[in-house]
Amino acid sequence: MLDSSxxxxxxxxxxxxxxxxxxxxxxxxxKAAGDPLRLEILRLLSQDSYSVLELCRIFELRQxxxxxxxxxxxxxxxxxxxxxxxxxxxxxxAGSVLLxxxxxxLDQLPLSASRAATVDQIASERAxxxxxxxxxxxxxxxxxxxxxxxxxxxxPQVAQLLxxxxxxxxxxxxxxxxxxxxxxxxxxxxxLDLSETMLTRAQAFADERGLQNIEFVCDDTRAxxxxxxxxxxxxxxxxxxHTPEPAQIFHDLQKALKPGGQLLxxxxxxxxxxxxxDACGDxxxxxxxxxxxxWAADAGLSRxxxxxxxxRNGFQVQIQEFLKR
Length: 325
Known about the structure:
Blueprint: H1 9-20, H2 23-33, H3 36-45, E1 50-51, H4 52-59, H5 63-75, E2 79-84, E3 87-92, H6 97-106, H7 113-137, H8 141-148, H9 151-161, E4 167-171, H10 177-185, E5 188-193, H11 196-209, E6 214-218, H12 222-225, E7 231-237, H13 246-256, E8 257-268, H14 275-280, H15 289-298, E9 301-310, E10 316-324
Parallel strand pairs: 4-5, 4-7, 5-6, 7-8
Antiparallel strand pairs: 1-3, 2-3, 8-10, 9-10
Helix pairs in contact: 4-7, 13-15
């Protein structure tokens, strides 16, 4: 006689089957995405993070209406949000393999001309804010840098990860200290910076040290992308949190790397110290390590070595290596 207090094997199997069945969850996810406007939002957020106010501008919606759509997408796990000071920024989540396949076609569709123009305008405004900061405070750069993470904290560690090659590129060389490491290890080096003020300071450092194999270019990373497969190694030290479109940086630099080339990123972990915006010109309050990994993977780069260190002032620094397949 069966003991009625014990669940039957058939009942357990049915229960496990129900729990592990991904179909209901997938159906709910697709229902949340099954709106033309939400699909456009997902397409835009696949590459970069945008604040609610920026999204309102792009899609020409009032904030309550847009917030409703974002709430539906967030509840379905399709977007994630993070607070940057007084603003909430949204980005599309990686999702399951099946969802990534479903969205791969969506991501190939272009934005309308008017929305693409607004996106470009927002990127220009972000870049101008960063450019203005370094034009005004370039002479205080080292002082501001010391507030968060001085070069001595990460420079020697990055140098140990360098792979030998013929040509290296540093994006945002700051005062120029790491250019000396590169100039002594590579035949030629390019220093690329959007700020003319900071590039002048880096060049003065190089002249003082007698570094003759460095080319100085005042431009953004699109200039690097215009030289495809030219760099064996690219270094980006404490720069991404100043850039308007961090995800796009990975795509540009992937194009500039030779096959098998190395990209080294030094960045802050995500943090909540909002004072860094005004004091140091930060556009972003650091990044979660997985965020960098996701951006790199989306650009066609594979993950290499990584190092992480905590500082006494509450910040954490990550050094991540990515390789071109």
